[in-house]
Design goal:
- By secondary structure, the chain is α/β, with parallel strands linked by helices.
- The protein contains 29 helices and 19 strands.
- Strands 12-11-10-13-14-15-16-17 form an eight-stranded mixed beta sheet, sandwiched between helices.
- Helix 5 packs across helix 6 (150-159) and helix 13 packs across helix 15.
- 49% of the residues are buried.
- The chain binds 3-hydroxybutanoyl-coenzyme A.
C-alpha cells in the first residue's frame, strides 16, 4: 500500500504531502501518519519548518465520511479528531499549510491547526459538515472564530457554504493567496523563519459573549428559514458561540458534545446516505466507454429547450438551438440573453463570460442544419407523442451516425418515440427538471433498444452538465413522476373524503416536503395534470381511479396559479388563500358520488400519502425500473423537494422498518382495496 503521507526535504524544510486518492480524505491511517510525521519533524534537529500539502487537485476534502455511519453504529470507536489537530498545532516549529483546491471540513480544520496558510487561487475553504447533518468536529468551531471572527465562523459553520480563495483571504483564514505553486510559496515563506503562531492563542477577533449570543439569535432565525427542521445548523451556532464564552479547551469539549449528538442522530445518517447515493447514482455497472460529445443541438426553444441549451453553454459545449416557429426561437434566445444579463447584474459572472456562453448558443434555421454536426441532440418540443415522433423521424434523416438522440419527456413512452427512427439503439430519454439550469436531477431513461453505449454517453454528458443523472427504466412517469402520481392521488382522495386542502398540504410541509401535493397541482396547472392522468390511464397504469375531483378543475376554469384559482385562491402576488367555494365544490362532488366525508388527522394524511409514495417506489424496484433504492432517494431529494435530512423516501421507509411498512400497507389493503397492494420488495 502506498504511504498516506509522503515526506520530502527542501533544505531544512520538511514537505509533507497527504496522498489518499481521490480527495485526500482524513482516514485514521492518514491522521496517524500525519501527526506522527509532524512529531518526528519536531524532534529532528535538521528540520526547521514543516510545509503540509495534499497530492492532486485538492488539499483535503475533510474527514473520511464513510467512517461516520460505522462510528454511529458502534462498529468502530470514535476518532479523536481534535487530538490529532492539537498534535499538529503543538509542534514547536512552524507548520505551514500549502492549499490548493478543496480545504473542506476536517481539511480546513487541519489547515487551521497549522500556524500559517498559503493558498492557490483555486483554493476553497469551508465547513460543510451541516450538509451531512454534522458540525465541525476537529476544532473548527473554536479555531475558525479566532481567525475569521465569530460572525463569519457562524455563517460558515451553520450554512456550510465554502469561500473562494479571495474571500478566505479577506476573512483572515488564509494568510496569503498566490498565483503560482502554493507549495513553492510556502517553502520560501518557511525559509524566512516565521513564528509559531497557534490559532488557539489568537484572541483579538473573538467578541464578547453577549455579542456572540445576539449574533447566534440572528443566525438561528436565518437557519430556521433556510434549513427548516434541521438540527445541525443550530448545534453549529451553539458551538461557535461557545468559543466566545469559554477557554479554548472547554470550547473543544462543547464542540465534542454537540458533534456526538449530531453523529448519533437520524438526520446525519440520512444526509450521509444521500451524499453517497448521489455519487453512486451516476455510476452503472457493465456500461462501455461513453462516446465523446463535442457539439450539441436542442430542438424546441420553449422554457425547457432554452434552459437545456443554457446547460450546454454553461458546460462549454457549443449548441445549436432550433424551433419550428421562428418567433418562439427568437423568444427563447431573448430569454436566454436576459438570464445571462441578470447573472452579470447579480455579480455571478462577468460580462466577458456571459458573452462567451451566449456565443456558444447558435440559432439554426432548419432542423437538419441544427442536427447535422451534433454528437448529442435533445428534443424538447411540446409533450405530444405525434409531434415528438415527427421530430424524431426528421432527426433520423439529418443526424450523423452514432449521434445520441434524446427526448426530454416526462410521461411519454420512449419506445414509441424510438420507433419513429431506424436507429432506436441511439434513442433514450433525458428528463430534465424545470428550471433546467438550476435543477440538478436528470433521469436517463433507457428504452427497450437503447444501446449500452448510448446510456453511458448520456450519463457522462449529464455529469459534464454538472447534473446528477439517475438511470431509469421506460415505465410510465419513469421514477419520479410515476411515484408522484399515487402520492398525489391519495392527497386528492383525502380532499374528496373531507380533508381541507390547506390541512393536507400543511401535514406534508410540516413533515419536511418543500411543497404540499395539492399546491404542486396548482403550480404545475390542472390542464397539465389532466393530460398526465389521461396518459396514465391510456397506458393502463394500475390502481389509478378513472375519475377524480381534480379532473373537474380545468372545466371550471380553475387551472391553478396561472388562472388565479385551483385548490386555492391566489392574490395578485400568487399567495394562496383557502377557498370556501372549492370546499363547496368538493362537498357536492362527494355527495353526488356517495363519498363519505370525515375529519382527517395529520398522522392519517401523512401515512396515506407517504405510504402510497414508497409502495410505488418498491414496485419500481420489483420491476427493475431503478437500479437501486438509493437512486429513487436521489430522484426525490433533487427533483421533488423531499427532505434530504430524511434521506429520501426509500431510506426513510427502511429506517421505519420494512416489516412495519408492510404491516401498515396490508392493513390499508384490507380497509381500502387494491391500491394498497404491497410490493414484493417489502418482504
Ligand atoms: N470522505 C470520503 N469520500 C469522499 C469525501 C470525503 N470527505 N469527499 C469526496 N469523497 C469521494 C466521493 O465519494 C467520490 O468517490 P467515488 O469516486 O468513489 O464516488 C470521490 O471522492 C470524488 O468525489 P466527487 O465526485 O464529489 O468529486 P468532485 O471533484 O465533484 O468534488 C469535492 C470534490 C468538492 C471535494 C466533493 O467531493 C465534496 O464536497 N466532498 C465532501 C466535502 C465534505 O463534506 N467534507 C466534510 C466532511 S465531514 C468532516 O470533515 C468532519 C470533521 O469536521 C471531523
Amino acid at each position: 500500500m502506498p504511504e498516506a503521507v509522503k515526506e520530502a526535504r527542501r533544505g531544512n524544510v520538511l514537505v509533507l504531502t497527504i496522498d489518499n486518492p481521490p480527495v485526500n480524505a482524513l482516514s485514521v491511517e492518514v491522521l496517524d501518519a500525519l501527526a506522527a510525521a509532524v512529531e518526528r519533524a519536531a524532534a529532528d534537529s535538521a528540520v526547521e519548518a514543516v510545509v503540509l500539502t495534499g497530492a492532486g487537485k485538492n488539499f483535503i476534502a475533510g474527514a473520511d465520511i464513510s467512517l461516520f455511519p460505522r462510528i454511529a453504529a458502534g462498529e468502530m470507536p470514535p476518532v479523536p479528531w481534535q487530538q490529532y489537530m492539537n498534535r499538529i498545532e503543538n509542534c514547536p516549529k512552524p507548520v505551514i499549510a500549502a492549499i490548493q483546491g478543496a480545504a473542506l471540513g476536517g481539511g480546513l480544520e487541519t489547515a487551521m491547526a497549522c500556524h500559517w496558510r498559503i493558498a492557490a487561487r483555486t483554493a476553497q475553504a469551508g465547513q460543510p459538515e451541516v450538509k451531512l447533518g454534522l458540525i465541525p468536529g476537529a476544532g473548527g468551531t473554536q479555531r475558525l472564530p479566532r481567525l475569521a471572527g465569530v460572525e463569519k465562523a457562524m455563517e460558515m459553520c451553520s450554512y456550510g457554504d465554502p469561500l473562494d480563495a479571495a474571500e478566505a483571504l479577506a476573512a483572515g483564514i488564509f494568510d496569503q493567496v498566490v498565483d503560482g505553486d502554493p507549495v513553492e510559496a510556502a517553502v520560501q515563506f518557511a525559509l524566512t523563519g516565521p513564528a509559531v503562531r497557534r490559532t488557539r492563542d489568537l484572541q483579538d477577533r473573538l467578541c464578547a459573549p453577549e455579542q456572540a449570543e445576539s449574533l447566534a439569535e440572528v443566525f438561528r432565525q436565518g437557519v430556521h428559514r433556510r434549513m427548516p427542521h434541521q438540527k445541525a445548523p443550530e448545534a453549529a451556532i451553539e458551538a461557535v458561540a461557545a468559543a466566545a464564552r469559554l477557554p479554548f479547551e472547554e470550547g473543544l469539549a462543547a464542540e465534542r458534545r454537540l458533534f456526538e449528538q449530531c453523529l448519533r442522530g437520524e438526520q446525519s445518517r440520512a444526509l450521509i446516505h444521500v451524499f453517497f447515493a448521489e455519487r453512486a447514482a451516476a455510476k452503472a455497472a457493465g456500461l462501455p466507454a461513453p462516446r465523446p460529445v463535442g457539439r450539441a443541438a436542442v430542438i424546441g426553444a420553449g422554457t425547457m429547450g432554452a434552459g437545456i441549451a443554457v446547460c450546454f453553454a454553461n458546460a462549454g459545449i457549443p449548441v445549436m438551438l432550433y424551433d419550428a416557429s421562428p418567433e418562439a426561437l427568437e423568444r427563447g434566445l431573448a430569454g436566454i440573453r436576459k438570464q445571462y444579463e441578470a447573472a452579470v447584474k447579480k455579480g455571478r459572472m462577468d460580462e466577458a463570460e456571459a458573452a462567451r456562453r451566449m456565443e456558444r448558443i447558435r440559432p439554426a434555421e432548419g432542423l437538419a442544419e441544427a442536427a447535422a454536426e451534433a454528437d448529442a441532440i435533445v428534443e424538447a418540443v411540446f409533450e405530444d407523442p405525434e409531434v415528438k415522433r415527427e421530430v424524431f423521424c426528421e432527426l433520423d434523416a439529418a443526424a450523423r451516425p452514432g449521434a445520441l438522440l434524446a427526448t426530454n419527456t416526462s410521461t411519454l413512452d420512449i419506445d414509441e418515440i424510438a420507433a419513429a427512427t431506424k436507429r432506436p439503439e441511439s434513442v433514450l430519454g433525458l428528463h430534465f427538471f424545470s428550471p433546467a439550469p438550476v435543477m440538478k436531477l436528470v433521469e436517463v431513461v433507457r428504452g427497450r433498444a437503447t444501446a449500452p453505449e448510448a446510456a453511458a454517453t448520456a450519463l457522462e454528458l449529464a455529469r459534464r452538465l454538472k447534473k446528477i443523472p439517475v438511470l431509469a427504466g421506460n415505465c410510465f412517469g419513469f421514477i419520479g413522476n410515476r411515484m408522484f402520481l399515487p402520492y398525489r392521488t391519495q392527497a386528492v382522495a383525502i380532499a374528496e373524503q373531507g380533508g381541507a386542502p390547506e390541512e393536507i398540504d400543511a401535514a406534508l410541509t410540516g413533515w419536511g416536503m418543500a411543497m404540499g401535493p395539492l399546491a404542486v397541482g396548482d403550480l404545475v396547472g390542472h390542464d397539465v395534470w389532466l393530460m398526465i392522468r389521461r396518459e396514465a390511464l391510456r397506458r393502463g397504469v394500475p390502481h389509478i381511479p378513472v375519475s377524480a375531483f381534480e379532473d373537474e378543475l380545468p372545466r371550471l376554469g380553475r387551472l391553478g396559479q396561472k388562472s388565479g384559482s385551483g385548490w386555492y385562491r391566489y392574490d395578485e402576488n400568487r399567495r394562496p388563500q383557502p377557498d370556501p367555494e372549492l370546499i363547496r365544490l368538493l362537498r357536492e362532488y362527494a355527495a353526488a358520488r356517495g363519498i363519505e366525508q370525515r375529519p382527517w388527522t395529520v398522522e392519517q394524511i401523512r401515512e396515506r400519502t407517504l405510504l402510497a409514495l414508497v409502495n410505488e417506489g418498491a414496485r419500481i424496484l420489483d420491476e427493475g425500473m431503478a437500479e437501486r433504492a438509493s437512486d429513487i432517494d436521489v430522484v426525490f431529494v433533487h427533483g421533488f423537494g423531499f427532505p434530504a435530512w430524511r434521506g429520501g423516501p426509500m431510506h426513510w421507509a427502511e429506517a421505519q422498518g420494512k416489516a412495519r411498512v408492510l404491516a401498515r400497507l396490508e392493513a390499508l389493503y384490507d380497509e381500502d382495496g387494491p391500491f394498497w397492494k404491497p410490493a414484493a420488495w417489502w418482504r
